[in-house]
């Protein structure tokens, strides 16, 4: 196996979301990778703890994390990030926590992130939790930057409903964001059924393609 891909979900996610993500992921998943949807049953367990647990238990050096409402869009999407992670690069979709005053810092978002466990340990095993200067998993980007290690961002190429700015101050991402024409993230599917239905619709479109 070359990489382990994880997607964590809780009881507030409809079964159809799980089914459709699984079908989309497996449509494009390389044969030498494994994909696991992790049901976080314990009430109150935070996303960072789930990611940390998946990382610690991964049978492969390369770990990739997807939000439950994030899917690949084409063959080669996974390889595009995994190959970089194999080179020690922190790779994934660009994100910004606009609610935190941290000089508009952008980072590899945990909704679509790939990295080497060996490199992660060499960086001091930074926390996946939020901190005074960053949101969930933002400390990984800070750690890579502190060591002058390479980071690779996928940037938005299309947004259905623009809501939030990135580093250029424009409204760059929001509901239904496509990154580099390789990955799609619905955003906020844990919060509303409307977002879950929109995600299912996108999955159906991808599966028909």
Task: Tell me the name of the CATH class.
Answer: Alpha Beta
Strands side by side in the biggest sheet: 2-1-3-6-5-7
Q: Average pLDDT value?
A: 94
What's the N-to-C terminus distance? Answer: 27 Å
* CATH-scheme architecture: Alpha-Beta Complex
Q: Quote the beta fraction.
A: 25-35%
- pLDDT < 50 stretches: none
| Percentage of residues in helical conformation | 25-40%
Principal-axes shape call: globular
Please write the string of helix (H) and strand (E) elements.
EHEHEEHEEHHEEEEH
- Largest β-sheet summary: 6 strands, mixed
User: How many beta-strand elements?
Assistant: 10
Radius of gyration: 16 Å
Helix-strand category: alpha/beta
Q: Oligomeric state of the chains?
A: single chain
Total helices: the number is 6
At the fold tier of CATH, the topology name is Spore Coat Polysaccharide Biosynthesis Protein SpsA, Chain A
**What count of domains describes the coordinates?**
1
Can you give me a brief rundown of this structure?
This protein has 209 residues and is an alpha/beta fold. The protein has helices at residues 15-28, 47-57, 77-86, 117-122, 138-146, 193-208; strands at residues 3-9, 33-39, 62-66, 70-72, 90-96, 106-116, 151-154, 156-165, 171-179, 183-185. The chain has one domain (3-208): Spore Coat Polysaccharide Biosynthesis Protein SpsA, Chain A (Alpha-Beta Complex), CATH 3.90.550.
């Amino acid at each position: 196996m070359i990489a382990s891909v994880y997607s964590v979900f809780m009881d507030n996610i409809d079964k159809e979301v799980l089914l459709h993500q699984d079908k989309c992921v497996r449509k494009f998943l390389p044969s030498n990778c494994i994909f696991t949807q992790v049901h976080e049953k314990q009430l109150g367990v935070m996303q960072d703890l789930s990611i940390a647990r998946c990382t610690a238990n991964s049978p492969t050096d390369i770990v990739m994390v997807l939000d439950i409402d994030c899917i690949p869009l084409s063959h080669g999407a996974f390889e595009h990030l995994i190959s970089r992670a194999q080179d020690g690069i922190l790779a994934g979709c660009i994100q910004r926590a606009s609610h935190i005053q941290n000089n508009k810092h952008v980072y590899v978002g945990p909704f679509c992130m790939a990295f080497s466990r060996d490199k992660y340990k060499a960086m001091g095993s930074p926390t996946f939790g939020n901190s005074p200067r960053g949101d969930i998993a933002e400390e990984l980007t800070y750690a890579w930057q502190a060591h002058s290690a390479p980071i690779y961002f996928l940037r938005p190429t299309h947004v259905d409903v623009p809501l939030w700015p990135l580093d250029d101050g424009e409204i760059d991402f929001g509901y239904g964001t496509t990154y580099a024409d390789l990955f799609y993230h619905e955003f906020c599917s844990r919060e509303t059924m409307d977002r879950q239905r929109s995600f299912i619709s996108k999955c159906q479109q991808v599966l028909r393609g």
